[in-house]
Design goal:
This protein has about 325 residues and is mainly alpha-helical. The protein has one domain (about 35-305). Helix content is about 65%, strand content about 0%. It contains 15 helices and no strands. Helix 4 (about 80-110) packs across helix 14 (about 300-315) and helix 7 packs antiparallel against helix 8. The two termini are about 50 Å apart.
Length: about 325
């Protein structure tokens, strides 16, 4: 055996170091502008933006109600500032996704609206089960036989449009960003409870504004209902692989203007439903395995990160111009 052709590890390291010393270091530093994915650390900025925008606008609506209503009309779902306050979680989510993942990443994030597949049982619950819960609550309250709140019946159509394009937009933030990030650290049940509590507190200004449905309700039962609703939605959301569409449709159903008034008994109904759903889904609610944690379309985050890394490596491999060429003295 010839041993004079075998390089030792020391020789390889020395040669590699010598070659590396001749290549300028162009690796991105801490101030590099290459996008980095959202992480659990992004929850702080997200909640700060969502609360800051919503509560800031709400403060203006409370302090300058007369002046604002003179310009934009009554506080409610037709007031642009009120709509802006409701949309704030979505604005926070879109900004952070764009900041960390760029335009391509934002497009991938929005494609989560195309995720619609989930078990048929969840579709039945979404379409029929939620109305049943409201009617059960109304039966307990004694309002289930009240007249339909819209006359003629087609007067409900504009109300349905408002319900579809106001509240559900929040879900770009709550379930689009916050829940997947929370599920990276906590099991779905605990993530649901944490998000539900934060979501409920976010609604506090609605109880201080005249013209909102919450202004006629008690905050305590409402808060419990929001936490329960958060728990109910999470296993459905995970079954649909993190679908923003499913979360938005769920939110739309919860705000359905055609359902009978069931406050505050619907709180008890939702709490019982949440407990039953947790029991039926206990194998998935207490473990992070199978939880939806992707901010972008499933599979896209790794692909886009790999593409970004390849571009960074390609830029680093390009030699810098020599000093002679840089000052124009090169031949």
């Amino acid at each position: 055996m010839r041993t004079d052709r075998i390089a030792t590890a020391t020789d390889i390291d020395t040669d590699t170091n010598d070659q590396a010393s001749k290549v300028p270091d162009r690796s991105p530093g801490p101030t590099a502008t290459t996008p980095r994915g959202l992480s659990t650390r992004s929850l702080g900025p997200f909640f700060a933006l969502a609360f800051g925008l919503t509560w800031g606008i709400a403060a203006l609506l409370i302090l300058f109600t007369d002046q604002i209503e003179a310009i934009f009309g009554p506080v409610g779902y037709t007031n642009p500032l009120f709509i802006l306050a409701v949309y704030s979680p979505a604005f926070a989510a879109v900004f952070l996704v764009w900041r960390h993942h760029g335009i391509k990443g934002l497009g991938s994030f929005l494609r989560r609206l195309t995720l619609w597949r989930m078990p048929a049982a969840w579709w039945v619950f979404l379409v029929l089960g939620i109305p049943v819960l409201f009617f059960v609550g109304a039966a307990m309250k004694g309002t289930v036989t009240d007249p339909f709140p819209f006359s003629p019946w087609y007067g409900v159509l504009p109300a349905l449009a408002i319900a579809l394009f106001i509240g559900p937009i929040e879900e770009f933030g709550w379930r689009g960003v916050a829940l997947p990030l929370l599920q990276r650290r906590f099991a779905p049940l605990w993530a649901s409870l944490i998000l539900g509590a934060i979501w409920g507190l976010w609604h506090v200004p609605a109880f201080l504004l005249s013209g909102t449905p919450q202004s006629a309700w008690s905050f305590g039962p409402y808060f419990i209902a929001v936490v329960a609703i958060s728990v109910i939605l999470t296993p459905m959301f995970n079954a649909a692989r993190g679908s923003i569409l499913i979360a938005a449709l769920f939110h739309f159903q919860m705000n359905g203007p055609a359902w009978p008034d069931a406050q505050p008994w619907d709180t008890l109904v939702f709490a019982i439903a949440a407990a039953v759903i947790v029991m039926l889904n206990r194998k998935t609610m207490f473990t992070r395995e199978g939880a939806a944690t992707d901010i972008l379309m499933p599979g896209d985050e790794h692909r886009l990160d790999a593409a970004s890394s390849d571009e960074t490596l390609a830029d680093a491999a390009q030699p810098e111009p020599s000093a002679a060429m840089a000052d124009g003295t090169g031949h």
